[in-house]
Amino acid sequence: MSVQTSSNQTLLHTIGDAPEPISRVKGAPRHGQDPYPTRLAEPLDLPWLSRREAVVKGRAEDGPLSQAQLDAFERQGFLFEPGFISGGELAELRRELKALLAREDFRGRDFSITEPQGKEIRSLFAVHILSRLFSRLAHDERLMGRARQILGGEAYVHQSRINYKPGFEGKGFNWHSDFETWHAEDGMPAMHAVSASIVLTDNHHFNGPLMLIPGSHRVFVPCLGETPDDHHKQSLKTQEIGVPSREVLTRLIERHGIEAPTGAGGGLLMFDCNTLHGSNANMSPDPRSNVFFVYNRRDNRCVEPFAARRRRPGFLAHSPDEEWSPQA
Predict the structure, then answer these.
(1) In the chain, what percentage of residues exceed pLDDT 90?
(2) What is the distance between the alpha carbons of residues 322 and 328, in angstroms, rounded to a whole number?
(3) Reduced to 3 states, what is the DSSP secondary structure of residue 162?
């Protein structure tokens, strides 16, 4: 794995590195209130709130990840496994990627997101429903077993997507926590979700690889700004609401640095739902395509949104055993 960091400081940290308790700070949520308030009119007295849920809920004997791997995920909020898939399996997934992106009947649909200034596809959602091949991969025990082990219970696919960042055209993604969005706009109650991202094309330093702030999963950063109606129509192209302030990002990056896992196609990156991440624009001619499967624990199914007037469309937030269809 090739890594770039913001400084020479060590990126590992212990539980003691988490911010001080916030129970006596004015503006902190009280018992019975939403523990993760966000989309606020004015900031709280602290830049972040302590995470309440455990990061790893399962044990080494519960699944394919070793204790060392679980410990790394606990510390960093992510785990990168190069060469997770290879050979004919990877080639088949790449062919399916091209076939999906070539589907003219997908263009202009709400689940097919184009670049902010252009017609190139930026993201294609619900791919575990649109494609039998990606459906099999999403429910493959190699992924489900890892998700179950980290989450400590049975999981379902809350969201799936291909992020396709075309050469020269692919724009970046602002720093954000997925959980902040899922909590605010989808009604995900707690931090019992994990993302699995499989690199379908080679990721290198110049085609906008995913960047993560290790250790950021241990705190929740409330964001400012009311959620507009139909916010997803804008945020999936360029997210501005639900983005931490530069001051908070600076403090977290000074503390923990930045890591950018890169490497050949076929690597698997698993990251906690609350790990802050983002990416730069693709400055190279090489596309950067990843497939994402988000696993949510079944007892953590979504309720009403915590900071939006209504739920986002079904292609963005599936319910357990839901039968979503692109014809719906």
Answers:
(1) 62
(2) 12
(3) strand
DSSP code of 126? -
318: number of Cβ within 10 Å = 24
At residue 5, the 3 state secondary structure works out as coil
Which two structure tokens, joined as six digits, stand for 263? 């490497």
Burial class (CB in 10 A: 0-12, 13-18, 19+), 131: buried
Report angle CA 205, 259, 243 to the nearest 5 degrees.
Answer: 100
Tokens at 6, concatenated: 């913001």
User: What does the DSSP 8-state code read for residue 22?
Assistant: -
**What b/e sequence results for 154-177 when a residue is b if at least 16 CB atoms lie within 10 Å of its CB, and e otherwise?**
ebbbbbbbbbbbbbebbbebebbb
Q: Which residues is 262 bridged to in the sheet?
A: 2
Specify the residue for token string 């399962």: 58
CA distances, 27 to each of 4, 5, 38, 48, 49 (Å): 36, 34, 12, 11, 11
- The C-alpha atoms of residue 129 and residue 158 are separated, in whole angstroms, by 12
Asked if pLDDT for residue 121 goes beyond 80, the answer is no
Q: Amino acid letter at 312?
A: R
3-state secondary structure of 127: helix
Q: Which residues contact 97 (CB under 8 A, 6 or more apart)?
A: 162, 164, 200, 289, 291
Cβ(257)–Cβ(6) under 8 Å?
Answer: yes
Encode pLDDT of 197-248 as tens digits: 999 999 888 988 999 999 999 999 999 988 877 565 555 545 577 899 999 9
Average pLDDT value for the chain: 86
**Do residues 214 and 77 make contact, with C-beta atoms less than 8 angstroms apart?**
yes
Greater pLDDT, 72 or 242: 72
* E strand or H helix at 88: helix 87-101
Tens-digit pLDDT profile for residues 134-148: 999 999 999 999 999
Chain segment 283-312, per-residue pLDDT in tens: 899 988 999 999 999 999 999 999 999 988
